[in-house]
Backbone:
C-alpha cells in the first residue's frame, strides 16, 4: 500500500490522504466527536443535505454523514474545479452516487463508507470505484452473516478460524466483497455469496485482481487497506462497466 501524495487528494480539517493505487486516492475521515469540525462541515452542506442530517436520531450517525459528505464536497470541488453551490449528487436505482456540476453529470468516480469513528473516501478520476470500512468489533449476528454473505469455501475458512483471527478474517472478506459490489454499482442488491475473494487475498495478500462470474471480461483491482483498528478495502477498474441503472 502506498501513502497517497498530496496531488491524489489534499488534507482537510478532519480528513487526510491514506492510500493511493494507480491514480485512485483513498482518504481517511476522522469521525471522532469534534464540535469545531462539525460546525465547519455544516457550512458545506446544501439545504437538502442539512434536512437529511437533521433526520438522524443518533448523534453518531448524524456526525458520520455530515463529516463525510462535507469532506467529499470539498474534495470533489477541488478535483472538478467547481464552486460548491454548483455541485449536486444523484444516485442510481441501486444507490450508486454520481456527481453533477452545473446540471451536467461528471464521469469522475468516487465512493464513501464509514464505520464507527472511521470514514473512507475513494476518488477515481478515470473509472469506477468502491470502498468499504468496518470497525473491528464483533457484530451480534456474526454467525448469521458468515452463513449469508460468504461462499462455501470462504465460510469453511472463517469457521475453522478461532477468536480474534475469525473476526479479522470475516471483516477482511466482508469489506472486500462490499467494495467490489459498490464499485460495480450494485450495493446491497447483489448477493455477495455468489462470488469469492481471490484465493491469494484469503491467504494474506494485500492486493489482487478479480472478475465477476457474469462479467469475466472486466477486470477489477482489489486492495485490502485495513488496519488493526478497522477492516477496509478498495476496488476499482478503468474498463467500461455496464450502467447499473
Residues:
Amino acid at each position: 500500500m502506498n501513502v497517497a501524495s498530496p496531488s491524489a487528494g489534499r488534507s482537510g480539517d478532519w480528513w487526510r490522504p491514506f492510500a493511493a493505487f494507480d491514480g485512485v486516492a483513498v482518504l481517511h475521515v476522522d469521525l471522532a466527536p469534534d464540535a469545531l469540525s462539525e460546525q465547519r462541515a455544516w457550512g458545506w452542506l446544501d439545504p437538502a443535505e442539512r434536512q437529511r442530517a437533521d433526520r438522524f436520531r443518533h448523534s453518531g450517525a448524524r456526525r458520520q454523514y455530515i463529516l463525510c459528505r462535507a469532506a467529499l464536497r470539498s474534495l470533489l470541488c477541488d478535483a472538478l474545479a467547481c464552486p460548491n453551490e454548483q455541485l449536486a449528487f444523484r444516485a442510481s436505482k441501486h444507490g450508486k452516487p454520481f456527481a453533477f456540476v452545473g446540471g451536467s453529470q461528471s464521469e469522475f468516480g468516487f465512493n464513501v463508507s464509514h464505520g464507527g469513528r472511521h470514514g473512507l473516501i475513494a476518488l477515481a478520476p478515470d473509472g469506477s470505484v468502491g470502498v468499504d470500512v468496518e470497525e473491528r468489533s464483533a457484530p451480534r449476528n456474526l454467525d448469521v452473516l458468515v452463513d449469508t454473505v460468504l461462499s462455501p469455501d470462504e465460510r469453511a475458512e472463517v469457521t475453522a478460524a478461532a477468536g480474534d483471527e475469525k473476526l479479522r478474517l470475516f471483516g477482511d472478506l466482508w469489506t472486500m466483497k462490499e467494495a467490489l459490489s459498490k464499485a460495480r454499482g450494485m450495493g446491497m442488491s447483489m448477493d455477495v455469496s455468489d462470488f469469492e475473494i481471490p484465493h491469494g487475498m484469503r491467504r494474506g495478500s494485500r492486493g489482487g485482481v478479480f472478475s465477476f462470474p457474469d462479467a469475466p471480461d472486466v477486470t477489477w483491482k482489489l486492495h485490502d487497506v485495513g488496519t488493526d483498528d478497522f477492516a477496509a478495502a478498495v476496488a476499482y477498474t478503468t474498463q467500461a462497466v455496464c450502467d447499473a441503472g
Remarks:
- The two ends are 32 Å apart (CA to CA).
- The chain has two domains: 6-126, 135-237.
- The longest helix spans residues 59-80.
- DSSP finds seven helices and eleven strands in the chain.
